[in-house]
Structures
1.
Amino acid sequence: MQALLNAIAKMDLPTDAQRVFHGRGGLYPGCEHWVLDAYPPVWVLTSFQSVTVDELASIHAALSDRLRQIAPDQALNWVFQCRLDGQTETKAMAGSVPEPHVVTENGTQYRVHVLRGQNHGLFLDMAEGRRWVREHAAAHPGLKVLNLFAYTCAFSVVARQAGARQVVNLDMSHGALAIGQQNHQLNGLTSGASFLAHDIFTTWGKISRGGPYDLIILDPPSYQKGSFVATKDYARLMRRLPDLLELGGHALLCLNAPELGMAFLQDQMQELAPDLTFAQRLPNPPAFADVSAERALKVLVYQGPTTPQPGSS
């Protein structure tokens, strides 16, 4: 646990939502089960194994000491979540959590909920993906974007802020999309985005009629029983890309499954969408450093052909 305590002792006062300590990356032996995130003004500590009362007391003391140093006028607010054997227990350890709880990232506001569920409303590891979408949309004004597995629509918000003309957000969760609509409103975006609570695999007709799209974002869960299993379902998305993409359009493929490396995406793309060209793998935020690039989050950019291909309709 010492590496976690050391990170707390050195951390600055966060203004944006961000990861503070990433034990899951395997760089700190003995601390693989610890994660510390900042959702200002709240810190969220997560453990993936059982911990002791004494360990939590030590972390509380470390957070208290550091906050006195960097923000002596602020109260300590922190939440602990334990994820073990498929069960999740979350409790407030000190202070309080704002309601509504709104955080920022690069000037954009997002609604989060750190006291319920494993997903808090904003995936911090996808910060560089959002940065790329923002920069890409700014460089290509007027894009039409398809955001699949949109969750709370963070990609949509940054795309619209940067000049995308239209974003179509699809997700099975009505609740997540409702937060996505709030995220647009928080940032003064009152038009240019649609929110469809549909099963993507039964909605291809509607998706196709709305296309083609200049940018398609695929950020599915790696494993969600009854909804999406990457090993069998990602291919179903890939084979649709050529027909949905505008000439010269781009696709952003995301995969957060430690057991599946780059080849899982690249080999299938070569087989199922060979006309799309691999452009780059986006870096992950430095805070998410991992002992293995193959294990870490994969975010890949592909580009479609700029001229019609033989046999295309």
2.
Amino acid sequence: MIPCPIGDGDVWDVLPAANLDVMRRLDYFIVENLRTARRFLSKAGIGRPIDTLEFAELNEHTPPHDIERLIAPLLAGRSAGVISEAGAPGVADPGAEVAALCHRHGIRVVPLVGPSSILLALMASGLNGQSFAFNGYLPVRSAERTKAIRHFERRAIAERQSQIFIETPYRNSKLLSDLLATCQPDTRLTIAVNITSPSERIRTATVAEWRKSPPADLDKQPAIFIIL
């Protein structure tokens, strides 16, 4: 399980150098996005032509019955690297299905160290890192999203548990608008944008403070939202 940098820049400013030794030994990769995976491996400088590597895509469009086919080379004795489009494979990522299938077949699954925007945002938030829940994507429809926000805010208050969300980048502003309209004024909200990139922004403030000074230009940028 090979983490991929979330932002642009030098791969090895973010990843530990020890990952390179593993990556250089692999010639088969199961990836969420072929183009971004090839670019990542090229920037990483793995020491061999990218065109000599074998790739198989695994994403939200992959039929469940095809996943067995993806691990056929592993059952034959080869090793594979699993690469998410960004961040840690298997975390909010279809790579988890490959890992689960490998466990069922007795294939060892090895996680390498690297960035997870979820944990990095929580680390920098100042919110509760002892008890937290990652809730993924909230409903798209406004009424259902508002209901979900109220549910998770009640849970945050009752359990003192940080509630973490992500959104498709082009809908970030809509999610923020609903959070600010729905949450109580003293609820704390962390917004973490472009984590590990030169344009990284991470700020925690109350909803009342965010209402007075909302962030600009959230759309089309990867972001994490946390409430407590």
